[in-house]
Specification:
Shape: globular
Radius of gyration: 23 Å
Strand order of the largest sheet: 4-6-8-10-12-14-15
Order of helices and strands: HEEHHEEEEEEEEEEEEEEE
Distance between the termini: 45 Å
Strand content: 35-45%
Structural class: alpha/beta
Number of strands: 17
């Protein structure tokens, strides 16, 4: 994850330099001399952009696995139940964006997985060393076959998580979400436990204490 963060920071710095160069470049094409055998050449900003796309951007795309198309097009997946990522590496990040009524299986071990703006989407994965995030989504199902340390649910309506025996120590972090259920394997089946949505907070004389509120029925 640190390698990816460093790469993103380098990419942001390069884009900033490109923007400055583009703003400061006022030379006409004919004043650029001869570049790559072309009379008049190209503007420095164009050369910088070309180096950027062939350098750090290419490296970023190589280290990332993007479902729903590549970074430029963001092609959506809909009504697909045969989506599989089988060739994975530990440093890879899976980003699933605006997929509808589809199922994805990720084999092997990856760094992290993000589900963003998806509806009626199911994810099955083996192992994640970092975090699985669900953001701005609705009606999501996640099945953990191996291990994952943390699953984060944010601004999501409806999320069912099936944990494996090896993932029972997984931490579930939720915010601004509803209809969340964790399914625990027991006696060859799953037992469902709802994630609290309501909390009560009280002052104990020295600090605030917050705990789940029991729903009176």
């Amino acid at each position: 994850m640190a390698d990816m963060e460093e790469l993103v920071q380098r990419l942001e710095r390069a884009v900033s330099r490109l923007e400055v160069l583009s703003a400061e470049s006022h030379r006409r094409p004919g004043d650029c001399g001869e570049v790559n055998g072309v009379i008049g050449g190209v503007a420095p900003s164009v050369e910088a952009f070309d180096k950027l796309m062939n350098g750090m951007v290419a490296e970023f795309l190589k280290n990332s696995r993007i479902l729903a198309g590549d970074v430029e097009t963001h092609e959506y997946q809909e009504d697909r139940n045969d989506l599989v990522i089988s060739e994975t590496e530990l440093k890879q990040v899976a980003y699933i964006f605006k997929c509808d009524k589809s199922t994805l299986q990720i084999k092997g071990k990856v760094n992290s997985i993000t589900i963003d703006n998806c509806k009626k989407f199911a994810l099955v994965f083996d192992n994640v060393v970092g975090i699985v995030e669900v953001i701005n989504s609705k009606d999501i199902q996640i099945q953990v076959m191996g291990r994952v340390p943390t699953i984060s649910i944010n601004k999501t309506e409806g999320c069912h998580i099936y944990l494996s025996e090896d993932a029972l120590d997984c931490e579930i972090v939720s915010a601004k979400s509803s209809e969340m259920n964790i399914l625990i394997p027991q006696d060859g089946d799953y037992r469902e436990f709802p994630v609290p949505e309501q909390f009560k907070t009280a002052w104990d004389g020295s600090k605030l204490v917050t705990e789940p509120a029991e729903i009176m029925g």
